[in-house]
Design goal:
Length: 508
């Protein structure tokens, strides 16, 4: 992994942290928000300048870190400005701004740090700061209970990360991430194995990411954390949760040679994506649907990483972050849009035969594309597994509104667009890694085909036997969260928080 030598980006966490003191000393609401807004603007400016600095050096730096820093800077700018308007007239704004700046500083440290101890410490602190944001409305019992569940899941993840860190540092003799990956490469060249300590560390990191990413069966807190302010939801779903994907990308060389960790990511991520997608079909609330969508998307991202589809995972991470931030911040407009469409005649329900023909045509397009590339560019390998996963999701485009030619052209255009982004993502990651075992690829493709067929049957026959049997289970979230909730309440029951009296400068 190239070292992050971009000096300007290393200042990114300091910019957010430096704004904390002016916020503490502020004596009015206007003065309270000014440091945060200035810090967000300066951070984004420094990211842009850091990009120019990297370009002047031939982009030999850590391209992944540069990209993630840009994403964090952009999200921070939008969320700070939105929060300024959203919380107007609310009590406790000082506490909110302090927690928000602390979270941003920690997240920026995670994506720019080259030291494993610093990365893990910053991730732990970001979770603690986020806990304060999730409990902003301290008079709402539901918010307290859900934040408590997240707190416990995060602490379990922290233990896993700390144990993995100790193992990796012990194996490499250094906490620098680049050195750790170099030692891994030396071991692979020597005997073809990473060693038991690194394999165990990879497995612990995978477990930590699963816990941090709200995967089944510890997903409940992400679904139920709807009592927090909307900008906090946007920050959580678009930024903090996606840190799990970033950690997997950062340690991609380690996970690509650790089959147990790959298997865990594929199985847990794949099942989470499948079940969450089914549950989402039963939800009406926009924010709840978005929460289940995040759960499913993170599961899909973990599955992609487990399969070694690192380019697809990177594109997915960026697209999901930007989309989910927009979706939460524009939730009110989404509701109005849904009501508007409800007044219009509904689109005819597609026939099951049409959906089956669509998936067959999608497979035919993939075969034709492979043959075309083989003849035109001998030796060039297409990411067939990634394209197969995309094809399953895009298959309905083949027969959209009965327009076969239009649908096929759109399908090919979308696949071609992804291939372009695939090449860009490969340049950003700048690494050649071994693929996952064939059994995991077969499992993933079979899982998505099964999900497609189930959803096709439900869409074509919403009153059929399958829909009637599956709906109660899906509506209840397959009762997976109940067991975890009971366990958490038994081990460490939550305590109600006393509302904090507003101080000078918290109200207008």
């Amino acid at each position: 992994m190239p070292s992050l030598s971009i000096s300007l980006l290393q200042l990114l966490p300091m910019i957010y942290a430096a704004a904390l003191l002016p916020v503490v000393l502020a004596r009015s609401v206007r003065a309270l928000w000014l440091p945060a807004r200035v810090a967000a603007f300066l951070a984004l400016l420094f990211v842009v300048m850091g990009g120019f600095e990297a370009a002047s050096e031939g982009l030999r730096n850590d391209r992944l870190g540069l990209l993630m820093a840009g994403l964090i800077g952009l999200l921070a700018m939008v969320i700070v400005e939105y929060s300024h308007r959203y919380l107007e007239g609310e009590a406790g704004q000082r506490r909110y701004v302090l927690s928000l700046l602390g979270t941003l500083a920690c997240v920026a440290t995670v994506v720019t740090s080259t030291d494993l101890y610093v990365l893990v410490g910053a991730w732990i602190l970001s979770s603690l700061c986020l806990h304060q944001l999730l409990t902003f409305y301290r008079d709402r019992p539901q918010a307290i209970v859900v934040a408590h569940k997240k707190f416990l899941a995060s602490r379990l993840a922290d233990i896993c990360m700390l144990m993995a860190t100790v193992l990796l540092v012990r194996a490499a003799g250094d906490s620098n991430i680049a050195v750790i990956l170099q030692v891994l490469d030396v071991r692979l060249q020597a005997d073809g194995q990473p060693g038991w300590d690194m394999q165990l560390a990879a497995l612990l990191l995978a477990m930590a990411v699963i816990l941090k990413s709200a995967q089944l069966p510890v997903h409940g807190w992400l679904i139920q954390v709807m009592e927090a302010p909307t900008p906090v939801s946007a920050l959580l779903h678009a930024g903090v949760v996606n840190l799990g994907g970033f950690l997997l990308l950062r340690f991609a060389p380690l996970f690509s040679v650790t089959v147990p960790a790959q298997t865990l990511l594929v199985v847990v991520g794949g099942l989470t994506a499948m079940l969450a997608a089914l549950v989402m079909m039963t939800r009406v609330s926009i924010k709840v649907r978005l929460a289940w969508s995040t759960c499913a998307q993170m599961g899909l991202m973990l599955l992609e990483c487990g399969l070694g589809l690192w380019e697809l995972a990177l594109v997915h991470l960026l697209a999901h972050s930007l989309y989910k931030a927009y979706a939460f911040l524009a939730a009110g407009e989404t509701v109005a849009h849904a009501r508007h469409h409800a007044l219009h005649p509904k689109v005819p329900v597609p026939a099951l035969s049409s959906l089956l023909v669509a998936i067959v045509l999608a497979g035919g397009v993939l075969i034709a594309l492979q043959a075309f590339v083989t003849n035109l560019l001998p030796g060039h390998q297409l990411p067939l597994v990634a394209l197969a996963i995309l094809a399953v999701g895009l298959a309905p485009w083949c027969l959209r509104r009965g327009q076969l030619v239009y649908g096929l052209l759109m399908f090919c255009l979308l696949l071609g667009t992804y291939l372009l982004w695939h090449e860009i993502a490969g340049w950003i990651l700048a690494q050649q890694l071994s693929p996952a075992p064939a059994a995991l690829n077969i499992f993933a493709v079979a899982l998505f085909l099964t999900l497609y067929l189930i959803q096709a049957q439900i869409l074509a026959n919403p009153a059929g036997a399958l829909a009637k049997r599956l709906y109660p289970l899906a509506f209840a979230g397959f009762s997976l969260d109940e067991h975890f909730t009971r366990l958490t309440f038994r081990v460490w029951p939550p305590r109600p928080l006393h509302p904090v009296a507003p101080t000078h400068g918290d109200r207008q």
